Amino acid sequence: MQIEVCKSKIHKVTVTEANLQYVGSITIDEDLMDAANLIENEKVQVVNINNGERLETYIIKGERGLGTICLNGPAARKAAVGDVVIIISYASMDFEEAKSFKPSIIFPDVETNQLV
């Protein structure tokens, strides 16, 4: 049996940009991606703490060290610059493997989106 479990989580980062005219997705600082074990084009769920919105999209790699969290395209309507979000990815795995799996969870500084 396969089940879905939390694979990676960036817990509480601040939205730095919202670009409605982009094709779609979320741009994430590459330092944050590496620390959370996320890759470009990976599907993620974005949960907005400020307004309760939830959406699914895919990752675009952002420039390292800038702390960029940018919602693009229609997703830009789900968050305002300054909102705090949680970014989660999931993985399907065998039930027995899932029992011992440990997700990559990071807690960046919510003011700067930098690793601490």
What fraction strand? Answer: over 45%
Main structural class: mainly beta
Task: Let me know the number of strands.
Answer: 8
Question: Which radius of gyration do the C-alpha atoms yield?
Answer: 14 Å
Within the largest sheet, what's the order of strands? Answer: 2-6-3-5-4-7-1-8
Helical residues, percent: 10-25%
Runs in which pLDDT lies below 50 for 5 or more consecutive residues are none
Main beta sheet strand tally, sense and closure: 8 strands, mixed
Q: What is the CATH domain class?
A: Mainly Beta
Shape, principal axes of CA atoms: globular
- Going by CATH, the architecture would be Beta Barrel
CATH topology: Barwin-like endoglucanases
Subunit structure: Heterooctamer of four alpha and four beta subunits.
Main location: cytoplasm
EC number: 4.1.1.11
Modified residues (Pyruvic acid (Ser)): 25
Describe it.
The protein is mainly beta. It has a single domain, classed as Barwin-like endoglucanases. Helix content is 10%, strand content 47%. It is built from two helices and eight strands. It has helices spanning 30-35, 95-100, and strands at residues 2-14, 17-19, 25-29, 43-48, 54-62, 69-72, 84-94, 104-106. An eight-stranded mixed β-sheet has the order 2-6-3-5-4-7-1-8. Strand 4 and strand 5 (54-62) form a beta hairpin. It starts with a strand and ends in a 10-residue tail after the last strand. The mean pLDDT is 97.
What secondary-structure arrangement, pairings included, does this model have?
Elements: E1 2-14, E2 17-19, E3 25-29, H1 30-35, E4 43-48, E5 54-62, E6 69-72, E7 84-94, H2 95-100, E8 104-106
Parallel strand pairs: 1-8, 2-6, 3-5
Antiparallel strand pairs: 1-7, 3-6, 4-5, 4-7
